[in-house]
Amino acid sequence: MKTSTAHHISFANAFADLYLDKSNGEFALDFRRQEVTVYLNTTQYQALVLLVQQGMEDEQFVGYLTWKEDPLQCEDNQMFEVCGPDHIVCMTCTPNCERVKLTFDLGMAIDLSFADFQGLAELIREAQADLEWRRELLRWNMSDTGSDFASGMQD
What we know:
The chain has one domain (2-149): Transcriptional Co-activator pc4, Chain A. It is α+β, with helices and mostly antiparallel strands and 155 residues long. It is built from 4 helices and 9 strands; from the N terminus they run βββββααββββαα. Strand 3 (16-21) and strand 4 (26-31) form a beta hairpin. It is elongated and about 50 Å long. The strands form 2 sheets. It has a 5-stranded antiparallel sheet. A 4-stranded antiparallel sheet has the order 6-7-8-9.
C-alpha cells in the first residue's frame, strides 16, 4: 500500500514499512515483527536495493526461501552470502535455520524469517516500480556528491 503527502512517500505491507522523507532524502525501514526501525541515507538505501535484487537472482536461494526446496533438508553448513556495494549492507542465510540476516555498516544486524525477507523484497520492488519514488531518488542522486549506485538499479 502506498501513501504520499507533500513531504513523505511510504509503502507498507504486513512485514515492513518503507518511508522516504522528500525534504531531506532520508529513508526509514520499519520491520514490523522485530519492532526495529533502520534509518538510511540515499546511498545506504540504494545499497540495500542492490543487495536484495542480487539475493533474489540466486535461484537456489529463492528455492529455499519459497520452500520449493525444503530448507530443513539442506546441509548444515550450507550458507548463502551476498555483500552490497562497499559492504554497506550484507546478507547471510543458513537455509536449515530458515533465517536471513542483514548486517548494516551502521552497526546493526536484523535477523529475518524467510517470510520477513520476502516481504521486504516485495516492498522494495513495489517502491522501485513507483514513478514518484524513482523521481525523488533521481532528484537526490543528482544533488548528492557521494557514491551513486543508481546505475545498478535498472531492471
